Batch of 3 targets.
Target 1
Amino acid sequence: RQREGSRGDFLSISIVGGHVDVRYDLGSGPSVLVSSSSVTLGYWHKLVFRRYHQDGMLQIDKSDPVQGKARGRNKSLNIRGSTYIGGHPYMNRTGDIMGTYKGLQ
């Protein structure tokens, strides 16, 4: 369960070092998936992320999919409150610029 103050279940998608980084936590610690290929900023890319219970899969464009599994026995992603795209209210704690300049399609 998600709790105020950035603790609990979450899903985040970001670009780190040119690769897409997907993190999700079902309550027992985060699972991290990093794309097998890099993305070029300023160009459109197709991102597919699927999750079934603890299992996750990330694929960028037509690259090889990356798979991972969340820790623990929890199977549900319990998000309470708002969903944020392009940023979040705790951005001042992360120290980096976050968001999307050209939007989503």
Target 2
Amino acid sequence: FDLSSGINAEYGGAKSVRPKSVVWVLWGDGSCAYSIAEIEPATRLNLPFIAIIGNDGSWGQIEREQVKMLGSDVGCPLNPATPYHKVGEGYGAVGLEIRPSATEEKMQQTLRLAQEEHSKGRTVVVNVALGKSKFREGSVSV
């Protein structure tokens, strides 16, 4: 998903093609700020989805190239302790968390719980702690 269109476009697009499918929204911790408030109307209007927020405490894709080009990470670091699952709860969703110490079994249990809650008609937000990666290294995103 991109930064500009938000949940409404992804949800509408996915449901128009596969109306009975589960919609999974994949966000980074930076990009979710653009449209996380859309969880509230989704819960109010009974339009459930599962949101996975990969939380590495950074605008990582931006930071990589910005540091190389400008020599500074200003504006890129985020707080990795931000409880995005609690933000989801505040908007009426079920909030779940996968911590850095989670085993693979615990991760699978959490994702199964997300699917179970979704099957009850609930929107679910899963805050997933991530380490740094080289994802999309070399892309220009400054």
Target 3
Amino acid sequence: ARLIWTPELHARFLSAVHQLGIRNAVPKTILQMMGVDGMTRENVASHLQKYRLYLKRVAGLPPNAPLSNETLSQVENAMQGQHMQQKLGLLKPDPAFGTGGSAGPAAAAAGFGQPCNSYSPAAYPG
């Protein structure tokens, strides 16, 4: 059976990743920290892989580049700034990234921080 990543599941995932740090986050530990019945290590591993690739893309790094906690912080700061600009009405939502704006990498980051629009089953098969 296929797992659908709801906003609540994604929030639990992010909480675990942030507690561990992106470089120390491993599927088994994230799974234990999330404590969700029926979720498998493979579900978490796939989501983590996609999340790391997303962060690299937003940071302008190649897919094979190492991902540091500093990069994660930079992306989070961009997401927060983008979200605040939207609240102030300075940016319009970009449908490609859920509720993110359309101003480059910061806009892409905003989409990932929003309620899982980019993690719909249609967007990420498998």
